[in-house]
Amino acid sequence: MTLVASDIPHRRYNPLRQSWVLVSPHRAKRPWQGQQEEPTKDTKPEYDDKCYLCPRNARINGEMNPDYKDTFVFENDFSAVFEKTAEVEKVVEEAQKEHTESTALDLDLLRKEDVFGYCQVICFSPKHNVTLATMTVEQIEKVIETWQKMYTEAQSRGIKYSLIFENKGATMGCSNPHAHGQVWNTSIVPEEPQMEFDSLKKYKDEKNRDLLVDYVNLEMSKNERIVYQNASFLVVVPYWAVWPFETMIVSKERVSSIKKLTKEQVQHLADAISVITKKYDKLFNTSFPYSMGIHQSFVDVENCPYEHLRLLFYPPLLRSASVKKFQVGFEMLGMPQRDITAEGAAKRLYDL
Question: How large is the angle between the packed helices 342-350 and 263-283, nearest 10 degrees?
Fold first, then answer.
């Protein structure tokens, strides 16, 4: 194999996590005889009478879904956390009585904290066979407006952090093919958004500038990793991306949370989501799997001077609809690693 400068392995710094990713471009040329996934074939009907999420159907707990016309939100029937009700508090109190004799070593190495909150499911559409990629911009606007309402509701229910996300496709462990997302509202801030918040705050405190505003302006000046942009949002493959076709939708001007978006910005965000999800589906001619999540201001901080709204897309596909990227070996035990450069991935997505 003849090496060129662009093949030389290097590591790239992620200022949001204050961590590094190893980039090994030459490995993209290696033959592949490993695991291959079956391409997703989209043959779902518009309505499935066996689907727990379709309108007018019964969910697993027996409750009937309404005949909803755009989005539908309900409390997750298998929530990852419980609300702090009188019943839950009684169980917690009884458990604490049984463990009153903790040693100093216990407190150092066997620490535990109770986490409270509630989880919700949001069906994006009444139609069983659509995805964000096949919905209109106007329909996606309805989804974003529902996210705004869910975030506002979390503020009234004493929540610390509201993590909005979507797992799309069986490859990502999605338990139901009807297009839907989730919101996990918790009494604690999860580690990833806390880590990124700390980095945003440190940058602002030290430089008196906003990290992601600087980054957006830098990417726009270089124009090497931009996939799409409109008046309010930039879609970019981050310089420090880990997943092969990872992207970030980031507001050009600092907006602390989805609640703060104007009507026009909601339209622009819907447009950006529509464009990138359609590009994903075109990349390998398949309904592209991914995990998408929104990082934004803590729910209990109305006007955070550090946070910057961003949507993160982590898709697992590597070379085709059937070849998946696995995080194993060096990635699990050493540090994140990627083969395809961020610039190469951005060009492929931009050209679609």
Answer: 100
Q: How many CB atoms lie within 10 A of CB 213?
A: 16
- Cα distances (Å, whole numbers) of residue 170 to 11, 132, 197, 283, 320: 32, 16, 31, 18, 16
Query: Which residue in the list 180, 268, 295, 308 is annotated as catalytic?
Result: 180
174 annotated to a ligand binding site: no
What's the pTM?
0.93
Residue 180 designated active-site: yes
| DSSP bridge partners of 217 | none
Per DSSP, the chain holds a count of helices (H) and strands (E) of 8, 14
Check the annotation: does 10 bind a ligand.
Answer: no
Determine if residue 295 is labeled as part of a ligand binding site: no
CA distance 181 to 135: 14
Q: How many CB atoms lie within 10 A of CB 123?
A: 25
> Which amino acid is present at 144?
I
Question: 342: closest CA among 261, 263, 220, 240?
Answer: 240
- What token pair was written down for 227? 């996939």
Q: Which two tokens stand for residue 309?
A: 């709204």
Can you tell me the distance from the alpha carbon of 285 to that of 327, in angstroms, rounded to the nearest whole number? 24
Question: d(Cα 100, Cα 189) in Å, to the nearest integer?
Answer: 27
Was 51 annotated as part of a binding site? yes
Give residue-wise pLDDT tens across range 132-164. Answer: 999 999 999 999 999 999 999 999 998 999 999
Tokens of 6: 């662009």
